[in-house]
Records
---
Amino acid sequence: MTVYEELVARGLIAQVTDEKEIKELINTGKAVFYIGFDPTADSLHVGHFMALCLMKRLQMAGNKPIALIGGGTAMIGDPSGRTDMRQMMTKETIAHNVDCFKKQMSKFIDFSDDKALLVNNADWLLDLNYVDVLRDVGPHFSVNRMLTAECYKQRMERGLSFLEFNYMIMQSYDFYALYQKYGCNMQFGGDDQWSNMLGGTELIRRKLGKDAYAMTINLLLNSEGKKMGKTQSGAVWLDPDKTSPFDFYQYWRNVSDDDVLKCLRMLTFLPLEQIDEMDTWEGSQLNQAKEILAYELTKLVHGEEEATKAQQGARALFSSGNAANMPEVILTEDDLADGSIGILNLMVKAGLAPSNGEARRNIQQGGVSIDGEKVSDVKAVVTKEQIGTEGIILKRGKKKFIKVLMQ
């Protein structure tokens, strides 16, 4: 099976500009390709996960990835998939987020010995002269055609700012600049980026008379058609300080039966033959498949040691055995008032609820317990003596729990 055939079999490819040429480039290791990441937060999240995995796959096959961090395009914001304008960020915030992205990407992509590049489009976009861009690039873009792009059509009714309207031109210019600087001949991205990517191939053709190619990958959607990677408390982050390795593991352990095999194919590096054997699995076997998925992805992001700890912690809790590896929160005297802490504050401190209001609702709905005993009073307090030296197990719902200890 060729590299391209494997991408198809895993359900990754959505649209391509020239399948024959793209196949040839990918299969022979001659693709110099880029994927863009706008640094809108200080961590990558599950929404970026599939792009990172694709870059890793193609690099393993001899192709050269370019990770483009959008320090310039983040100054504007991509309107794709949005119903409102993105919040404007300061240059300082963008620079901080760029540094965070670089560290996380190194876990997936080998940047040694010129095997891959990591570039920031701020290096060329922020120095452009507006009039020069209008004269040099503007004639090659049809406003009529731009307005038919899905990313703009979604926003026309609610209002599309001129600021965002320029995003397609900037992304297209990125491809044009990368082609000239590094011989980048392909761009990959999410299926919602198709119009922007076509703009880049067309600009290269018009300005340089050269062919460049684009391929989109399917978005990671669940069986209900919703984007995966969000929980009640927000996004599932790759940063262990924002989403712990245990919570990351649990997210994938709890995917629906209908989604587990799709996720195994699209995100893991397990052989397709091994995954295909799971097609006939059902019942408890599907739970085993979910464990495999959760372990493989946690290992990929956080390393084998953390993946093993997360798996052991989950098994220990649900088998009522030794829970030494379950996640912990350690309270200090500063967290207490008169030697105790309110249950609402404790749930927020432990990361089991994003706010006191949400914690209150969880308790009122009967979903909170301490050491197996349901908490029914929203004004309940937990004392230092209750926590003791062994700690207590605070649980929300069936699958969210944490061990509370005192320092």
---
Amino acid sequence: MTETPHTGRTALYFGSFNPPHNGHIAIGRHAVESGYADRVIYVVSPQSPFKSLEELAPETDRLAMLSMAVDECGMSGFATVSDMEFSMPRPSYTFDTVKRLKEDNPKAELALMIGADNVAGFDRWHRAEELKRLLDDILVYPRRGYSDPLPSWCRPMTGAPLFDVSSTELRERLRSQGEVARLLPRSVENYIREKGLYAAHL
């Protein structure tokens, strides 16, 4: 489904979500519960300019898993999942998506959520300075190994949870049949195993 902002401040959470995990859900919940936003839109990126296509599960599967995670975790009242980039040129650039949202909703207050690992390289993003001007806020959540002071154009999400396992590590655990029960929503884990995603033997 393609979601558009309504009234209040909307936090945009872009990602491959490959797979979506409890950390993605916890950050979105924290954004709303701590007053950084009134609602969250998770934007599933079919093809990031910074990532290889090799290990990406099909975009429709990633969209389905993320929708399941939002529902299972009781966030459907304030979080939605968007496929709007599926119909846009690839690779997906955040600037293009935010620009389209602003054009469709000129009065929308949009905040972008990024991990601390993205801050240093943000100025290399496509049309980064224009993107900053389009946004009302850039919120930074913690990532393991990144604790440098933040530049003035963004602000930290104080008290945000630190999820210590990445999607890459989760895929490795799934391949080796390692423990993932406390890292993925149950519906997502079941979907991965039923569909045989990330490893042929699952």
---
Amino acid sequence: MKYKSLFIDLDDTLWDTFHNNKECLEELFAENRWDRYYASFEAFYAIYMPHNMKLWEQYRNHEIDRQTLIIERFRYILQPVGIEDIDTIKKINNTFLQLTATKTRLIPGAIELLEYLYPSYRLFILSNGFREVQYKKLHNSGLAPFFEKTILSEDAAIQKPHKGIFDYALINTNSRRKESLMIGDSWEADIAGAYQSKIDQCWLNPERLPDKEFTPTYTVETLEQIKKIL
């Protein structure tokens, strides 16, 4: 086999971040009666989501730190409802993180793929997510037993797509660059990051988005298709 070590992103590659987080936000929206200030949850979400994505991009690029991301993603959306107190915003964020860790919806085919890969490869999570949440997600959703180790950006003190986290992952798993494959859904964080680190890539691209600066080693539309590659 060409590959021995598989580094797999967690959010929106295995764990369905989009739907799980949206469900949590909708619960917060209803519990806090934010419908008094927003026409609907969808109107609230249409403002929250692009702002949150922009903050995560800034976090990946080391333009902001974790604390800024945590505060600003909710302060921006709660200012119109008159909530600006930092302690209140932190409490809301903590509730959100606790809720997300309880959600177990996975990307279709996640467990089946891991059952297929587990006997033949060393499997590792490589994620930018926060430590206190990612481990709970893995355990609560039944993903944890498949993975030898979880590598988080907080441990490496650097985020994907920067080369340093990929080097850190290789060193801390005793993996060879040429025998490793990165599997992920994010072009910028997973695919471009691995490419720049000279690690082969498998892009989970269900929306059939066009390639950008280069052609990934592999592109699939579903997790099921990865079985034909490995």
